[in-house]
Amino acid sequence: MTAGVGPCALPLVGLTWGIKRSFIRYIGTLPDGRHAMSEGTYLGETSYFTFPPAPAPDTPQVMRFGGVVRLGGHGGMLDILIAEPWVEMTGSGPILSVIDPTGWPDRTRRIPLAELHLWEAAHGLTERRYAATLTGAGAVIFDDHYPPGTELDMLVIE
After folding, report:
1. 143, 16, 133, 15: which is closest to 77 by C-alpha?
2. How far is CA 72 from each of CA 14, 24, 39, 55, 106, rounded to the nearest angstrom?
3. How many other C-beta atoms can be found within 10 angstroms of the C-beta atom of residue 153?
4. Residues with Cβ < 8 Å from 124, sequence gap 6 or more?
5. Which residues, other chains included, contact 62 with Cβ-Cβ below 8 Å and sequence gap of 6+?
6. Which of 36, 83, 121, 145 would give a disulfide with 99, using CB separation of 3.0 to 4.6 Å?
7. Which pairing describes strands 15-17 and 49-51: parallel, antiparallel, or unpaired?
8. Dihedral sign (CA 53, 47, 139, 149)
9. Strand partners, 122
10. What would the pLDDT profile of 20-68 be if each residue is shown by its tens digit?
11. What is the pLDDT of residues 115-136, one digit of tens each?
């Protein structure tokens, strides 16, 4: 981050998301709790993950982001993969989809992780904030510890 930027600063470009802050804090309390980022994803000063924009074919109904976040603990019993998030505009509203972790490293299958609801569009169309709620398929990623409909952290796209 640039010197002089306050602790709430967001990146200039990308999808920034805390996933579920209470869960991230929980992982931090585990003796072997860990998080790893790759393929351009980084953890900012405010402990939010930022996924970089990804090149995409001309599909205006999809905003593609790259990168991978892997969270783990409990001697490997807890292993969560969130890879290549996309915001897809569907007939029933926007969703956040990710690569299906059950097929990793195959990247051809995707699942809807969260339903999104536009919360705020700021700075014209350059920043969008979405409230996110867990889908049934997304609950599986968290080993069903959170039921569908659980509120996740707000997602910010710049």
Report:
1. 143
2. 24, 10, 18, 29, 20
3. 19
4. none
5. 56, 86, 87, 88, 89
6. 83
7. antiparallel
8. negative
9. 127
10. 999 999 999 999 999 999 999 999 888 899 999 998 777 889 999 999 9
11. 999 987 666 667 889 999 999 9
Which strand ranges, in their side-by-side order, compose the sheet holding 78-83? 34-38, 68-73, 78-83
Other CB atoms within 10 Å distance of the CB of residue 72:
18
Place of tokens 């992780």: 113
The letter for the amino acid at 86 is W
d(CA 144, CA 158): 31
Q: State both tokens at 16.
A: 């920034």
Rounded to an integer, what distance in angstroms lies between the CA atom of residue 6 and that of residue 53? 23
Q: Which two tokens stand for residue 74?
A: 């409990």
Closest-CA residue to 133 (of 156, 153, 118, 111): 153
Q: Rounded CA gap, 150 and 29, in Å?
A: 22
Extract long-range pairs of 52-59: CB within 8 Å, 24+ residues apart.
52/13, 52/14, 53/13, 53/14, 53/15, 54/84
Q: Are 77 and 139 in contact (CB under 8 A)?
A: no
